[in-house]
Amino acid sequence: MRAYEYEVAVIGGGSAGYAAARATAAAGRRTVVTEGGGELGGLCILRGCMPTKALLHAAEVRHQARRSGIWGLEPGEVGFDFAALMQRKAAMIEEFASYRRGQLQDDRFELIRALAKFRDPHTLELDNGQAITAGQIMIATGSRVAELPLPALAKLGCLTSDDALRLESLPKSILVLGGGAVAVEFAQFFARFDVKVTVLQRSPHILRSFDDDVTAAVESAFHDEGITVLTGCSLIDARQDGNDKVIVYERDGKRHEARAEAVFHGLGRSPNTGPLALENAGVETDNGRILCNTQMQTRTPHIYAGGDCAGPHEIVHIAIQQGETAAHNMLHPDDPRSMEDRLLISVVFTDPQAATVGLTEKAANAQGIPYHTASYPFNDHGKSIIMDAMHGFVKLLCDPETGEIIGGACVGPTGGELIHEIVMAMAKRMTVAELATTPHYHPTLAEIWTYPAEELAEKITG
């Protein structure tokens, strides 16, 4: 058997890569992590979840303060210091990132700061002139901002989410391209700091993976805040006109123009796999995404992948699970573990927050899975009325024979927190009858789940 310099090599030190390296090193495997990024920490900490949620929380605090007259308060004009806001965000991110740097540099495994690509299935060439060999390899190179769909857009100069996190001042107006999580979260952030916002989305609704009733609730809230949402738009061209950036699009068979001081590129991210020379390792991809089985194994059996470069869900806790799954399967090939989507969670941190777990109605219908469903609105719920959080609802899907909960959705106040009640219920395979009879304190937001559960329980027992 060939002797390798390392037993395990991990390409990328983000969430998936660190999870894999931590596990293999703890098992006593000689492990190396190569990281070619300018900063250590991974997308979530540096340019994703943490900095964006810091900005969104600041926007939420200002929004609630400005509307506090509802509760008889008189705050006066609620101004803001954008530089101070960004400084607080940067300080928090540095704290999170320094902790991750410490984890990566604490000598449990070797860390090499260099970009890697495959020379052959067991050899990695590094851009520092080194070459290393490993018996098993984990690819966790993350994602990058997707290419713009029109050459004219690239010439125009669009803000990406990375750029937005480094802004020193805000534009007076902005066109947001796209309707996914990143696009709509930034759209509401900009609007709540007095930027005039127009969202241009190709599909019939924003957040197209969610059920239409969920997206309609978010769109309604955006309308109430003065955000213009234009769906069914096909981008045609772009140009600079004086101080304005102009986007030309087609909608309902007619040509239109939208203009603003800035354009935000929210058209998604792409797997960061181009520089890896994966063909030299026999690793297959689909539009750049590394193809893996449920055990996170590529077509080349000793090479695994996880996180955004493998997908299909760009979610941090899934990246960690994928890294841990890959590591387990490297260590225990005779007792493999598999990823599964039964408890897939999605959260978008708009206001109202949109969250789902398990099956949506769209997914159930597409897969031919029968279900019963019931929902209950927040505008008829005591605690949310007190909070004046009137947009949205909760919804449950259950098996029509057994009553087992197979999906849930919450679009409303703290939806990203509330959805975890259904995550736990589904993890324990609870029925709607069991959820309906579980005690809930009054008045709380969480008790709203009992209402659709009671309605569905009557259908099952009837």
Structure, described:
The strands form 6 sheets. Strands 1, 2, 3, 4, 5, 6 and 18 form a 7-stranded mixed beta sheet that branches. The protein has a 5-stranded antiparallel beta sheet with strand order 19-20-23-22-21, with helices on both faces. Strands 10-9-8-14 form a 4-stranded parallel beta sheet. A hairpin with a 4-residue loop joins strand 19 and strand 20 (353-358). The chain has 462 residues and is of the alpha/beta class. It has 3 domains: 6-40 and 105-145 and 270-331, FAD/NAD(P)-binding domain (3-Layer(bba) Sandwich), CATH 3.50.50.60; 151-267, FAD/NAD(P)-binding domain (3-Layer(bba) Sandwich); 345-461, 2-Layer Sandwich (Enolase-like, domain 1), CATH 3.30.390.30. The mean pLDDT is 94. The protein is globular and about 70 Å long. 33% of the residues lie in helices and 25% in strands.
